[in-house]
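Internal ticket - ligand job 369, fructose -6-phosphate:
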Amino acid sequence: EKGGYDYFMLKEIAEQPKAVADTLLGRIDASGRLSLDEVRIPASVLREVDKVVIVACGTAYHAGLIAKYAIEHWTRIPCETELASEFRYRDPILDQRTLVIAISQSGETMDTLMALRHAREQGAKVLAICNTNGSTIPRESDAVLYTHAGPEVAVASTKAFLTQLVACYLVALYLGQVRGTKWGDEILSVIRDLSEIAGEVEEVLETMEPVRELARSLADKNTVLFLGRHVGYPVALEGALKLKELAYMHAEGFAAGELKHGPIALIEKDVPVVVVVPSPRGRSVLHDKIVSNIQEIRARGARTIVIAERGDTAVHPYADHLIEVPATPVLLQPLVATVPLQVFACELATARGNEVDQPRNLAKSVTVE
Ligand code: F6R
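stdout (structure tokens):
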């Protein structure tokens, strides 16, 4: 049932191109616009939404952090993403014009369920993004957009995460389409780019041998740091989470701009630091800033592992290890940039003799608060 792979996690990593394609299937019409009629919240209600709040845990929370960038950019609706376990305890401000999005692979995560119940009690509309048909979270929501990752068996989430991202982009683009923002043309072009993304994920998967080799060479390290900016920041958090849960290593993700506000003190000789570099096209200011961050940490002896768009030569002189990913629109980059980090964590776990599919102390679905 592992389809020839040693672990479910490897199988699920390999299934990502299909999972992404399946999640898009039937959701883009012949004219290249989104048709999400299955989300049974009328367009008239979506036009009135004045705030979006995303609640989720763990990896799904990281998808939600990325969604915030997409939603605010394409819809101009203020959006916040919050850990489900923190949400209801701070007495959040919600009303009928708030759209709450609950993201969950299992659909059974108690923290997320309690957050959405609280949101509905306050009159907010709840849209679930979920991978498990008929599970509790979609049953208790006003609407659901299913991710079509197929069953995810390994405890560490991989393909579900990529499909959560796709679903989040679909919601963001759909909200933009329904409300008609100045980004109409960009929205159409990003929908086209999304249809190409499965092939790009496949390309990344085909070039992972050097990443596995690198991971094996780091098996005796104590710590790995991850840096990113913009949508690369949640990717850094996700890379660190994967490493903690699988390799049982100390790993931390930072916003690269925060370095000088503290974390740079952690940089010493030979500490591996993974840097997720945004596309040099589009927001070039961001790109320049991260290049100088890489220079700063390298000057202090860090061993830099740089994930960058193919052909981004500006980073080459500062990358001890370069991991290239295909060019995508800036906001979509997490779909390709996360994949090497999954492979990296999985290989490190194997090299350290850990149980990849069943990490210690973890359960696939956390049904207690
Ligand atoms: C990490 C991981 C967990 C889950 C989290 C939420 O690899 O699997 O962090 O993402 O427990 O689970 P769901 O998505 O089922 O609500």
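Auto-summary: The first helix runs from residue 8 to 14. The longest strand covers residues 98-104.
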